[in-house]
Design brief:
This protein has about 450 residues and is α/β, with parallel strands linked by helices. Among the domains are: about 10-105, Beta Barrel (OB fold (Dihydrolipoamide Acetyltransferase, E2P)); about 130-265, Rossmann fold (3-Layer(aba) Sandwich), CATH 3.40.50.261; about 395-440, no CATH class. It is built from 12 helices and 13 strands. A 5-stranded mixed barrel has the order 1-2-3-5-4. The chain has a 5-stranded parallel sheet with strand order 7-6-8-9-10, sandwiched between helices. β9, α7 (about 245-250) and β10 form a beta-alpha-beta unit. The N and C termini lie far apart (about 180 Å).
């Protein structure tokens, strides 16, 4: 036996899990400060990175469920305090930190993160002036995103009521803590998606506080939601000396929540005074305008000649044409009257015309009667002569002298004996009747 024969023997897996139990039991809850390096978000949603200082590197993993709920997300180069459990991954004989919570490692680290995000957003153009939307002069509805309790909402409502009473829609949110950024983001999108009672202006406000207290308004989701908003946004976060990334992306920054109320609506009395001044200026301008053109019209009137002078020539010409027209018209009708009288003298009295017509009609009638009588006598003589001649040529005269006409069955007269056949039935026509005969 060797001198070490009493030392327990382990398999690789046994010693790995034994070490895992020891390490996890000893370091079940630790706070480790370091700089984030090699950050990578896997498709599964789990985050893998390392924490390093000047001498060492510690692997870290944050499971998807925890990572999605983190208020502070690890970014490359950030100095953070990660809270969790040290565990061993037996598959690679590797120890790592399983992160459950993340905190900023002091004000310096926060400011470094803030400057890094600010530079990134500026590079993307989120702060560019050409993207700033104009603030409406008199918004009908003002949407306010802030805590429903506290002095901020009271100051804003009171200030708006004093200056120019308007309709207010409050979207209550947390303004500090892990859930604050998500709620503010949801409020911005929510106001933009309203179909009815959609605000014309959004005010995002909270009171003063430390950098950590105001950190929700430096988160990426809040900044990008404000940039995408179709409704103009006034930011009023903290005191006048406090700045957040929301202030840079908003369409207008107010130094305080009260200042935001003052920038959102004008003073009613000032508006009334301004309108009255504008009305007075319009009235004065109109009076001067009409006075100027009235004087100009008077000057033009004086420069025009007297209308009697202009019209006298045309009146005289009109009188001349009238006289000439009357004279010409008189001569015309006198000439026409002479012509009518001449025609009248040439016309005969209707009785004389009728008597003459009757005489001519009687003469024509007598001549017509004489001609008709002579015509009908001649026609009668011609008819008598033609009748006598027709009778002399008639075959029936011949029949009276003892002749007969033989007619065949086709009613045609036979002119030769050869046209008849034995047994034919023929008709013999005499002057006084017909006989049926049969050929033998």
């Amino acid at each position: 036996m060797t001198e070490n024969s009493n030392v327990p023997e382990y398999t690789v897996s046994q010693i790995s899990y034994k070490l895992k139990a020891v390490v996890e039991g000893e370091f079940s809850y630790v706070r480790i400060r370091g700089e984030v390096s090699g950050f990578k978000l896997a498709p599964s949603g789990h985050a893998y990175f390392s924490l390093k200082d000047s001498n060492s590197v510690l692997a870290a993993v944050c499971w998807r469920g925890i990572f999605n709920s983190l208020t502070i997300k690890p970014e490359e180069g950030m100095e953070l305090i990660c809270i969790g459990t040290i565990t061993i991954y037996p598959g690679q004989s590797k120890y790592q930190l399983v992160v459950e919570k993340i905190e900023h490692a002091g004000l310096g680290a926060l400011m470094a993160t803030l400057e890094r995000r600010k530079a990134q957003f500026a590079k993307e153009g989120l702060f560019a002036l050409e993207h700033k939307k104009p603030i409406p002069f008199l918004p009908k509805i003002i949407g306010i995103i802030t805590s429903p309790t506290g002095a901020v909402i009271k100051d804003i409502l009171h200030r708006i009521e004093d200056r120019f009473p308007s309709r207010i829609l409050l979207w209550p949110v947390l303004v500090q803590g892990e859930k604050a950024a998500g709620q503010v983001t949801e409020a911005i999108y929510g106001f933009n998606q309203l179909k009815e009672n959609r605000p014309d202006l959004i005010i995002i406000a909270r009171g003063g506080g430390s950098v950590e207290d105001l950190w929700a308004f430096n988160e990426e989701n809040v900044v990008r939601a404000a940039f995408a908003s179709e409704i103009p946004i006034i930011s009023a976060i903290g005191h006048e000396t406090d700045f957040t990334l929301l202030d840079f992306v908003a369409d207008l920054r107010a130094p305080t929540p009260t200042g935001a109320a003052e920038k959102s609506v004008p003073v009613l009395t000032n508006v009334a005074i301004t309108l009255r001044n504008i009305q007075n200026r319009i009235d004065y301008a109109l009076s001067k305008y009409f006075e100027y053109y009235h004087n100009k019209l008077l000057m033009l009137k004086k420069s025009l000649p007297n209308y009697h002078t202009i019209l006298s020539h045309f009146i005289q010409r009109l009188d001349d044409f009238s006289i000439r027209f009357l004279n010409a018209n008189k001569r015309y009708f006198e000439t026409r009257l002479i012509t009518v009288n001449n025609f009248k003298a040439r016309l005969k009295h209707p009785k004389d015309v009728i008597n003459l017509a009757e005489t001519r009609l009687t003469q024509v009638s007598n001549r017509f009667k004489q001609a008709s009588r002579t015509y009908f006598i001649g026609q009668r003589q011609r008819l008598t002569l033609a009748t006598s001649l027709l009778e002399s040529y008639s075959y029936k005269k011949t029949l009276t002298r003892g002749f007969a006409i033989i007619v065949g069955k086709d009613n045609n007269a036979l002119t030769s004996a050869t046209q008849a056949r034995t047994g034919d039935k023929l008709t013999a026509e005499f002057h006084d009747g017909k006989l049926s005969v049969t050929v033998n």
